[in-house]
Amino acid sequence: MHFHSNDTIIAPATAVSNSAIALIRLSGTNAVACVAKHFSGKNLFEISPNTSVFGRIKDGKNAVLDEVVVTVFKSPRSYTGEDVVEISCHASPFIVREMISLFSQAGARLAEPGEFTLRAFLNGKMDLSQAEAVADLIASESKAGHNIALRQMNGQISSKMAVLRANLIDFASLLELELDFSEEDVEFADRTRLRQLVEEIDGEIRNLLNSYSTGKLIRNGIPTVISGRPNAGKSTLLNTLLQEDRAIVSDIPGTTRDTIEEVIQINGVQFRLVDTAGIRKTSDAIEATGVHKTYEKIRKSAIVIYLFDPGAITVEEIRHDLENLPETEAEIILVANKSDKLLAGNELEAFTSAFSAYELISISAKLEHNIDTLRNTLYEKVLGQTNYQQQVIISNGRHFEALSKARESLEIVTSGLAEGLPSDLVALELRQVLYYVGSITGAIGTEDVLGNIFGKFCIGK
Description:
The chain is of the alpha/beta class. The chain has helices at residues 31-36, 93-105, 115-122, 128-139, 143-153, 156-180, 191-220, 234-242, 285-299, 315-323, 349-354, 371-383, 397-419, 423-441, 447-454, and strands at 8-12, 21-27, 39-41, 51-58, 64-73, 84-90, 108-110, 222-228, 260-266, 269-275, 303-308, 331-336, 359-362.
């Protein structure tokens, strides 16, 4: 991405679709002039800032292209910090194309992906973590994902990083001062207080790093695999959780040959459900491929629902299946299906006793018995101990990497203080910590990093 801050950019801010209204956005010094040249209505140079007016856009031959509502935002009180004009027109692809062509001929150029938000960052309207949160907010697919992105966009991560940097800068400054007076052998920084500060900062960073696994799951959705032997009722359970007939249900073992993936929301959190082929040895090449895919999905999952029919399987067979699951860090929930077919009241006792280390739930997927309990268990397994609505949570891989490197440097600082290393060596590592923490908000950054971040945005943002 090439950075140009003096020209005027234009892009559609809405997708081309069969909707009523489309929005075209311009930003830059000549944004108002580009639109005013083709606008018939009030004088756009004379209207009050942040005001919307009705009028018509005319082409180069003075023919009316469309009736529009134009909103003018004056610098610095705009999204980008520059003069911004937004045009609400009818969503005809022809109209949108023609308007962009007209305003481009008047001096605007087509914006690059994320360039509006990049300008907002460069003009001090938001820091880098807030800019990234804008993209997360646009892409959010659940209430929880929206909640985290919105709080980050409003400065939650920024505030946390600002406190960390302020404390680090205070002591780094004292260490740097010691270097200026190194010949006098004077210590301006209290080493005991510095060690205490490093421990406090390390604790804060550790908490943020620990939150990443939760943040990533909320951001991307929680991969949840429904596994088990053939005819355990996996496809029926998927359909019940979805409240629709998504998967084919049959009494014939091996009906599901490939994975089926769907999404549900539980308490505002997105779960990515995967119905899989039944686990068993088979000579059928296609079914064997399906079983292989089942194991691949389990490796990448956060939760595995092992579904079984108590009347058609033994404790030893379940134990064999569990022991032969691929290596995974997923939470495993045992779910006894077809409770409607259990005649006596003690059929589950042997399973409950043998697998006391696991959560075991009895359901009837067909009759929807105890399905709410299963839903609540899925949520509790991953997020039950996390107050994601209040807690500061990182969900961005770049932030995780920067904080990991900052903590590595902090560990060197801790060791250096314990071993009595000279101030210049301790100061060197503190500078590294400051660099990594600052890179999260853009207090320190490079053009390559900015290009990588904003290049992932949509064109009109």
